[in-house]
Automatic annotation (TrEMBL):
The keyword Protein biosynthesis does not apply. The lineage of its organism: Bacteria, Pseudomonadati, Pseudomonadota, Betaproteobacteria, Nitrosomonadales. One of its GO terms (molecular function) is electron transfer activity. Heme c binds at C141, C144, H145. SUPFAM superfamilies: Cytochromes (SSF47175). Pfam families: Cytochrom_C_2. It comes from Sulfurirhabdus autotrophica. The keyword Electron transport applies. Residues 1-23 form the signal peptide. One of its GO terms (cellular component) is periplasmic space. This is Cytochrome c556. One of its GO terms (biological process) is electron transport chain.
Length: 151
């Protein structure tokens, strides 16, 4: 009897130790740095498109297509950076992200879908369609920032 209790305790220790190792694999501060970096890159790619849509910069179809294609891939990247425990630190991410994770994921999926559409539409070179889809994509950025990012 005593032996099996010891065996159970030892097994629990092993389990506790290994789950700690797993939890420690990604540090919250690294996850925060990761998602901020992705969004910095997204902003870099998105900004010139906004300038073209507004007419502040001449429309360059090749640049538009390239940036929109990058953004389609980039839009899939931030979500995995919102790991448990990364609500604290150098971040403006609101606790609502973790409290309403399904809603947050839904917002991210909307961003991904609208960005994929932007990449498609950019290939037409038709500014009317591009403008409309750029607006729809920007709305998905703003929706999550309004709901889930502190000022
Ligand atoms: C960006 C950026 C945002 C969004 C938003 C879109 O490049 O930094 O917060 O786009 O302006 O409406």
């Amino acid at each position: 009897m005593k032996v099996s209790v010891n065996v159970i305790l030892a097994s629990l220790l092993v389990v506790a130790f290994s789950s700690n190792v797993i939890a420690d694999e990604v540090k919250p501060e690294d996850a925060i740095k990761y998602r901020k970096s992705v969004m910095t890159v997204m902003n870099w790619q998105f900004k010139p498109l906004g300038a073209m849509v507004k007419g502040d910069r001449p429309f360059d179809k090749d640049v538009f297509i390239k940036n929109a294609a990058y953004l389609e891939v980039l839009s899939k990247m931030p979500l995995e950076g919102f790991i448990a425990g990364s609500d604290k630190g150098e971040t403006k991410a609101k606790p609502e992200i973790w409290a309403e994770m399904e809603k947050f994921k839904g917002g991210m999926e909307k961003l991904q879908a609208e960005t994929a559409k932007l990449a498609q539409v950019s290939k037409t070179g038709d500014m009317n369609q591009i403008k409309a889809q750029f607006g729809e994509t920007g709305k998905t950025c703003k929706a999550c920032h309004d709901n889930f990012k502190s000022k």
